[in-house]
C-alpha cells in the first residue's frame, strides 16, 4: 500500500464538508481548529466548541491513575490541565480511580479544585485506602470515596472500559 492510499475501512467524515469518517464513526462531531494571533505574537489554536456526541464508546469510561503526574514529567499542573480540559470539552469519565502515588493528588490544591469540579459533574472519584494510610492522608480526604484496594481490584477486573494513565 502506498503512503497516499488509505485502507478501505478508513474514511474521513467532516460534517461541514460532507465526507465520511468510519474511523470516528458517527460518534464525533469536531469543529475545525482556528488560529489566532495574540498581542505578544504567539499563535494559539482553539476550537469553537469541540462537541463529542455521547455514544456507547464514551459512556462508562473509567480512568485509573497510579501516579501523581502524567507521562515522564513530574508536573502536577499537567494533571490539573488534563482534568480541566475534560471538563471544558464535556467528555467526562464515569469514574476516576486513584491508587498508589495518585492518592497524593488530593493534597495538591490546583488538582483538588479540578477533582471537586469533576465530582460536581457526577464523576465518581474512588481513592485507595491503603495508599492514603501509607502517605498519611486518610484524615485529609475531602473529595471522593475511600475504597479498599480489594474492592478496587474487583471493579477493575469486572470492567472492560478502563483507561490507565
Structural class: alpha/beta
In one word, what is the shape? globular
Number of domains: 2
CATH class of the largest domain: Alpha Beta
Number of helices: 4
Radius of gyration: 19 Å
CATH level-3 fold name of the largest domain? Hypothetical Protein Ychn, Chain: A
Helix and strand topology:
Blueprint: E1 28-29, E2 33-37, E3 43-47, E4 51-52, E5 62-65, H1 76-88, E6 95-98, H2 109-120, E7 124-128, H3 129-134, E8 145-147, H4 149-157, E9 162-164
Parallel strand pairs: 5-6, 5-9, 6-7, 7-8
Antiparallel strand pairs: 1-4, 2-3
Helix pairs in contact: 1-2
Q: Which terms summarize this structure?
A:
165 residues, 24% helix, 9 strands, 20% strand, alpha/beta, two-stranded antiparallel sheet, 5-stranded parallel sheet, 2 domains
Describe the 3D structure:
The protein is of the alpha/beta class. The protein has 2 domains: 9-55, no CATH class; 60-164, DsrEFH-like (Hypothetical Protein Ychn, Chain: A), CATH 3.40.1260. The chain has 4 helices and 9 strands. It has helices at residues 76-88, 109-120, 129-134, 149-157, and strands at residues 28-29, 33-37, 43-47, 51-52, 62-65, 95-98, 124-128, 145-147, 162-164. The strands form 3 sheets. It has a 5-stranded parallel sheet with strand order 8-7-6-5-9. It has a two-stranded antiparallel ribbon with strand order 1-4. It starts with 27 loop residues before the first strand and ends with a strand. The relative contact order is 0.13.
Amino acid at each position: 500500500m502506498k503512503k497516499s492510499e488509505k485502507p478501505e475501512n478508513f474514511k474521513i467524515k467532516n460534517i461541514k464538508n460532507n465526507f465520511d469518517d468510519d474511523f470516528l464513526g458517527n460518534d464525533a462531531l469536531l469543529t475545525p481548529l482556528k488560529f489566532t494571533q495574540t498581542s505578544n505574537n504567539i499563535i494559539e489554536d482553539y476550537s469553537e466548541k469541540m462537541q463529542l456526541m455521547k455514544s456507547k464508546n464514551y459512556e462508562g469510561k473509567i480512568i485509573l491513575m497510579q501516579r501523581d503526574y502524567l507521562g515522564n514529567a513530574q508536573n502536577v499542573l499537567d494533571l490539573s490541565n488534563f482534568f480541566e480540559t475534560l471538563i471544558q470539552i464535556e467528555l467526562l469519565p464515569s469514574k476516576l480511580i486513584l491508587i498508589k502515588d495518585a492518592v497524593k493528588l488530593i493534597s495538591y490544591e490546583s488538582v483538588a479544585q479540578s477533582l471537586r469540579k469533576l465530582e460536581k459533574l457526577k464523576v465518581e472519584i474512588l481513592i485507595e485506602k491503603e495508599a492514603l494510610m501509607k502517605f498519611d492522608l486518610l484524615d485529609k480526604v475531602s473529595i471522593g470515596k475511600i475504597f479498599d484496594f480489594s474492592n478496587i481490584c474487583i471493579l477493575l477486573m469486572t470492567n472492560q472500559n478502563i483507561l490507565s494513565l
